[in-house]
Design a protein that fits this description.
By secondary structure, the chain is an alpha+beta fold. It has helices spanning 18-35, 74-83, 90-96, 101-113, 122-132, and strands at 2-4, 11-13, 57-61, 88-89, 117-121. Strands 4-3-5 form a three-stranded antiparallel sheet.
Length: 133
């Protein structure tokens, strides 16, 4: 903040006041909330779970599934939205949503039962690449 001193006419820099700093922080915080993705959760991931044996499975939505009323949550809708345009695995869902492991397993089982997802085991490709070397 520049301030002009009337005695000398000099311009000098003064540290910003506490209210100016708080206002700037509030403005930046508001901007960050408006322009960051809802999938970007600034909190650290909850407990990291060990990967299950099926960790090589990836899922991509084929069509929108029918869900029970209890499953119509923002976290599930966000996850399904991402799955509608790219492949994800169980660990990605665990890290990037607030869903509990049991909820994720139920959701994936429901999607597979409805034939709403394309499931690919990428571990097969990794083994083939390793054998080809």
């Amino acid at each position: 903040m520049l301030t002009q001193f009337p005695e000398t006419g000099d311009m000098q820099t003064q540290p910003p006041s506490t209210t100016a700093t708080a206002t700037a922080f509030a403005a930046l915080h508001g901007w960050a909330q408006k322009f960051t993705s809802s999938l970007m959760d600034p909190r650290p991931a909850a407990k990291s779970e060990p990967e299950p044996a099926s960790s090589g499975l990836t899922y991509m939505l084929r069509h929108w599934p029918s869900l029970p009323q209890a499953s119509m949550t923002a976290d599930i809708y966000r996850t399904l939205s991402v799955m509608s345009h790219r492949r994800v695995n169980r660990n990605w869902i665990l890290r990037n949503s607030r869903l509990k492991p049991r909820q994720i397993d139920r959701l994936l089982a429901r999607l597979v039962a409805q034939n709403a997802v394309e499931v690919i085991d990428i571990a097969v490709f990794a083994r083939e690449v390793a054998l080809a070397k």
